[in-house]
Design a protein that fits this description.
Number of domains: 2
Structural class: mainly alpha
Number of strands: 3
Largest sheet: 3 strands, parallel
Strand content: 5-15%
Number of helices: 7
Order of helices and strands: EHEEHHHHHH
Shape: elongated
Distance between the termini: 16 Å
Radius of gyration: 19 Å
Oligomer: single chain
């Protein structure tokens, strides 16, 4: 068991979320629990309704925090859309703290959507990245939530609890 390490599996977008869900399913089918105490499963979605998507196995809702399938929303609302336009133009107060938007984000993609990106990024990697980075460091940010997970899964008691879950699994086999 020394070869296992605390792990956060992150899936970006719809495909990434499905991949994380399938991995969680494989673990559930093999060991009988949908995770391990020092694992976390995260789906970062640019679609506001993805919390309604049930993880597989759909009939297994985790009883413990480490069995849960976490969905973090990373959308761009109408106000954020204006901020991103000013970041790309270099006129935003955030532009100094967050350089690079102008260099990698095609301004024509922002013009395509006048309102917001709350129903997904439409398979546009640039828009998906914009959704992620726009929400990376704000209140209740994705970064903060992931860092909290790192703190949780690296706690010594999670290693002990993981070893016990795996011992129970081996004894059942």
């Amino acid at each position: 068991m020394q070869n296992l390490s605390p792990t956060i599996v992150i899936g970006l977008g719809t495909f990434g979320g499905r991949t994380v869900s399938h991995l969680r399913t494989l673990i559930y089918e093999e060991i009988g629990v949908a995770g391990l105490p020092f694992f976390r499963f995260v789906h970062i979605s640019s679609h506001k309704d993805d919390e309604n998507i049930k993880p597989q196995p759909a009939n297994h809702v985790g009883q413990k925090d480490w069995e849960n399938y976490n969905v973090f929303h990373s959308t761009i609302n109408v106000d954020d859309m204006q901020t991103i336009k000013t970041l790309v133009e270099g006129t935003s107060p955030r532009a100094e703290k967050e350089p690079g938007w102008r260099e990698w984000l095609d301004p024509d993609l922002i013009k395509v959507c006048d309102s917001a990106y709350i129903s997904g990024a439409g398979n546009s990697r640039m828009i998906g990245r914009s959704c992620l980075w726009n929400n990376w460091s704000n209140n209740e940010s994705i970064k903060t939530r992931i860092m909290n997970m790192v703190t949780e899964i690296t706690a010594p008691d999670k290693q002990v609890e993981t070893e016990q879950v795996l011992r129970d699994y081996i004894n059942r086999k």
